[in-house]
Design goal:
The structure holds two protein chains of two kinds. By secondary structure, chain A is mostly helical. Chain A has five helices and no strands. Chain A has one domain: Orthogonal Bundle (Cytochrome Bc1 Complex, Chain D, domain 2). In chain A, 50% of the residues lie in helices and 0% in strands. The radius of gyration of chain A is 14 Å and the shape is globular. Chain B is mostly beta strands. Chain B has a domain of 44 residues. Classes of the chains: A mainly alpha, B mainly beta.
Chain lengths: 120, 414
């Protein structure tokens, strides 16, 4: 539990650094990219967090679980990872604005289940 | 379906005192004949060339045949199968499927039926079957621990919380069976390895636990060598692996390959490697490095590193062809469109294949002439000749992940 708290603190600290993703509501990813991001979320984030995002080696990413956390901390966790835990930084694969958009989706409502989407 | 020799006994019991030998022999043949004809065609089909593919997104399995290189049809209704794995009963006719949603399902391959399903935890990550095939154990993240079931009825026979401090339960990884109704597993959050002995369960005795502490930071998966002698846990939190020699008079944890990435910045790990598809080829073990685009080569006599091989990405599965001549490697994203083949004699990469997008798993046929590879984002399984690397078949499957052949039923640690 100590490790977790530590990681959360680091995450919160990161979120106030200038390198943290900035809130950029105007810079929405394109519709096609949004689909891609949601697919990454389900399929690849899902390898640790579960395809239904209910958790696994990584914690649950449901809206219930994330809603109370500061938005900046969630976005920074995606972008920079959580040192000391298996959560990697995704900045080599997505932009800060995209991390920000994903964090907003996650906190607003758990993105729609993918049972059928993944089959196409 | 009673054994045929029970039938005459039953018939005899119904007889009054008269035992004319002629009558008896007539009776025997009359009683025995229904048993002899009873097995229908379905029950005499061998299972040695069957297998299952997990279709992770649709909660289904596809039954496959490795001789015909065909998919034979679906078994549906298994829930959330992302990261699902399964083990086989020793007859190779039944599989126990561990779903991410914490359900344990039992399926029958020849009839493609889901026979039973129990919701045993909130979040599960795999399981094991005992040496004698009687017990099936599931390793759980939530609530952390293992649960053990009767393999015939799926009745729960033991619940072992991974409680390492008052009120603190660890997520469990790296579960494997040991001889004599024992299971060994690692506690990711507690840096511990436990052995649970369930040999007294049938007689009403509780599981006996043996605990190894401070094994190294964050064991994330483990393997057992095919002889059952060494249990090796990969460590996420530090460079190195934890090894236990289970044949030692007093088994203890030793660190091997400590500091394999010393002084170098670890690369991000977008998917945790799996150790279960262990690769021991001859006297060398091939293991994925964490945070490094390398496969480590270890001498299994001295447990010293004897080499490392640069590969195309973060290795996920490092698997030896059954003869040990080749080792096949797949990767975490973003490099998961590739598979590389290492020749164990030269320790060189001799082939880089692109079998599809999002390669998640590989499975060798029992004697290794072919390998089946799942490509999740292409909804496809490729069957590849391991000698010529030619594609022998391409089969459609919905978001395929794990591929499991019934030959696992006869292998320890699977």
């Amino acid at each position: 539990m100590n490790h977790r708290l530590q990681a959360l603190l680091i995450t919160c600290f990161l979120s106030v650094l200038p390198t943290a993703p900035v809130r950029s509501a105007e810079a929405e990813p394109s519709a096609a990219r949004q689909l891609q991001l949601l697919r990454i979320l389900r399929q690849d984030c899902g390898s640790c967090h579960g395809m239904q995002l209910k958790g696994g080696l990584g914690p649950a990413l449901t809206a219930e679980a994330l809603r109370e956390l500061p938005h900046e901390a969630v976005a920074a966790t995606i972008f920079h990872g959580r040192p000391g835990t298996p959560m990697p930084p995704w900045k080599s694969m997505i932009s800060a604005a995209e991390a920000d958009w994903l964090a907003r989706q996650l906190q607003h409502a758990t993105p729609a289940a993918s049972g059928t989407e993944a089959q196409k | 379906m009673k054994p045929a020799n029970h039938l005459p006994t039953r018939c005899l019991a119904g007889l009054s005192g008269l035992l004319l030998s002629l009558q008896l022999s007539l009776l025997l043949s009359a009683c025995a004949s229904p048993a002899a004809t009873e097995p229908g065609p379905q029950n005499i089909v061998g299972t040695g060339d069957l297998g299952l593919v997990v279709e992770r997104a649709s909660g289904s399995l596809q039954l496959l045949n490795t001789s015909r290189r065909e998919l034979l049809g679906r078994i549906e209704g298994l829930g959330d199968l992302s990261h699902a794995s399964l083990v086989y009963s020793r007859d190779g006719a039944h599989a126990y499927v561990f779903g991410r949603d914490g359900a344990l399902s039992k399926v029958h391959l020849p009839s493609r039926r889901l026979l039973a399903r129990v919701q045993q935890s909130g979040n599960s990550i795999g399981g094991a079957i005992s040496q004698d095939g009687r017990l099936v154990a599931a390793q759980n993240y939530q609530p952390g621990g293992i649960k053990v079931f009767d393999s015939v009825t799926l009745a729960e026979v033991a619940d072992i919380p991974a409680e390492y401090a008052p009120g603190q339960r660890s997520r469990v990884v790296g579960l494997a069976e040991l001889p004599g109704q024992r299971f060994i597993f690692s506690l990711f959050d507690a840096d511990e390895i436990w052995i649970a002995d369930l040999s007294g369960i049938a007689a009403g005795r509780p599981p006996q636990l043996q605990k190894f502490k401070d094994v190294g930071r964050q064991p994330y998966d483990a393997l057992i060598t095919p002889d059952g002698r060494h249990y090796i846990a990969g460590l996420f939190g530090e460079d190195g692996l934890a090894k236990i020699d289970l044949w030692a008079a007093e088994p203890r944890v030793e660190r091997i390959l400590a500091g394999y990435g010393r002084g170098q910045q670890a690369l991000p790990v977008f998917k945790m490697p799996h150790l279960r598809g262990w690769a021991v080829a001859g006297r060398h073990a091939y293991l994925p490095a964490i945070g490094r685009h390398e496969v480590l080569v270890v001498d299994t006599e001295s447990w010293q590193e004897v080499g490392r091989i640069a590969v195309a990405g973060q290795p996920v599965f490092v698997m030896a062809r059954p003869d040990g001549r080749q080792v096949w490697v797949n990767f975490a994203l973003p490099d998961y469109d590739r598979v590389q083949v290492i020749d164990t004699q030269s320790r060189q990469i001799i082939q880089t294949l692109k079998p599809g997008r999002a390669v998640l798993h590989m499975e060798f046929t029992p004697r290794g002439e072919s390998v089946w590879i799942s490509a999740r984002d292409d909804n496809q399984i490729s069957v590849i000749d391991t000698a010529s690397f030619a594609v022998q078949a391409r089969l459609p499957a919905a978001s395929p992940s794990g591929i499991f052949f019934t030959s696992r039923a006869q292998r320890s640690g699977f």
